[in-house]
Please model this.
Amino acid sequence: MSAFQLTSDELFYFPEPADPASTEWPGTPLGLSNTITRTKGRTARHNKCVDSTPGLLEKLLATVYRHLERRVGQEPIHTHDVVIHGVRVRATTNSPHLYDFWLDNWHSVQEWKEYGGRVSEDPQVKVYALVGVPNEPEAAYYSRQANTVIFFNTSYYGQLKSWVLGAVGRWLASEYGIHSIHGACVEMDGRGVLYIAPTGTGKSTSSYGLMDYPNTRFHSDDWVYLRYAYRTRSGEPVVVLEAEDSAGGRARGYQVHRWIERHAEAPRARLRVISLDQDEFSLSLGELDLSHPPEAYAYTSEKFFYLRTNLVENFPPATCELASAKHENVPDVTDEFISRHAHVLNAMGAALAHPDCSAFQGESDSEIRRRAARLIAFDNARAMLDMSKVLPLARRFGNPLEPLRLVAVILLKRNPADPSVLNHVLLEPFMERLLIGETPEGKRETAYNAYRVVDDRAERQYVGMLERLAGTGRPLYALFDEAGDAPESLREEFELFRVLYNAARTYDLNTILESDSSVPDKQEAVRRTLAIIARVIKEEPPDIQLTLESYRDYIR
Model:
């Protein structure tokens, strides 16, 4: 959008590139950098099912290699390995912006080893992100068989990050039984709460808002890895990686949980396990205490958080550092935009003008307010935030291998037509919510996770079939659990969600307290919602049901 294409609702704009063929170019300065990308969201052409078309992967890779050979000596070609929760990922790109954000976003191989983690010598996932590729559209491709992601002619980091996380997630689930979840996580009094929610229902508000409470630590903003552990008879939590019975039957990754349930009477079956301290060893099934339910441990994913800049509306303490960071697609704004959002800009402007925010000292109030306005103007403007500059180590998780025991999982929604505020969710409605994954706009998003690199069409068709069968009065998840022809990606995902349900208390929270006539404004609605969450974490109440009429007694 240029400055000459503004509408009354979009009072912001992006500078045009000097070269119309550019995929990335400098925007108006803000912080360390501000890169504008031609594509600012998902590419129009994208294919997560490359393997279903014979010869397509070979054709794509031939284009990659041909372009790399052609560009040798003309521009830098960057190849760099990172570690994403133990998976070595190698990216090759000629985009300065993608390379810059790639380095900041993830832990290097050396950093991972310094934390005590192990990593393979060869990459398990490969990424090619090339711009300036002739005769190719802006496009994204993924091969599950080759564990390879290929991007052509797009510099938007958000889609690259999401597809890489999806590819890593498939590997972790199948090989190690590690669950990758699009969610936010916070620790309070040593107990973890995980939020799973569609955009716009209060995930960021609930996670960052809880940091105003004492004895809290920030964990994850966007992506969480869960390991499901069993207790040994000596009380040590261990994650089962692989299982084998005396007849040679085996299971690994996400399949081990059903296997253990079915072989509970075979105590001599052998298990390959890993402790929470990363020690790998073997033991027998009989050495597990199966009377104890599995436990869920959450791990952070990113080194620097790639997040929306409008986070500052919900978490003003981050305003100064976020405004000083590296940015992607932060626009310019008109005076009219600033005028319309004056009430929101007050707290943000005060944070930027604070003496501790040295980067903006000496600037006029009007310029500071303009910088603050730019952060909230475009919903998909992003920044690479080093959380260590926002919160001290005592208030955040800095070690990606430090586990956080989850006690509660909260599914967030915003439905003003529903007077319920909080409910303890049983297995079938919990799984049904995630299977359907309906957003406030009515869009379907399985597990509220658009990052999943799966055959979306096959999954939607399967879920649609279940919904038709459920019309006969049978629970949706019961039908899924009985069916044997579900796509592998769905079986993988929902087997792990089944274990999560058994490992933590699950709740449904409707963020609608602004509908309560006793609530004067949004800030008070948020305060009361956080009070509900804080008590839930502390008490893990079973069978709780709160409505707009009854919730006030719960937080008195």
User: Anything to note?
Assistant: Confidence is low (pLDDT under 50) at residues 1-8.
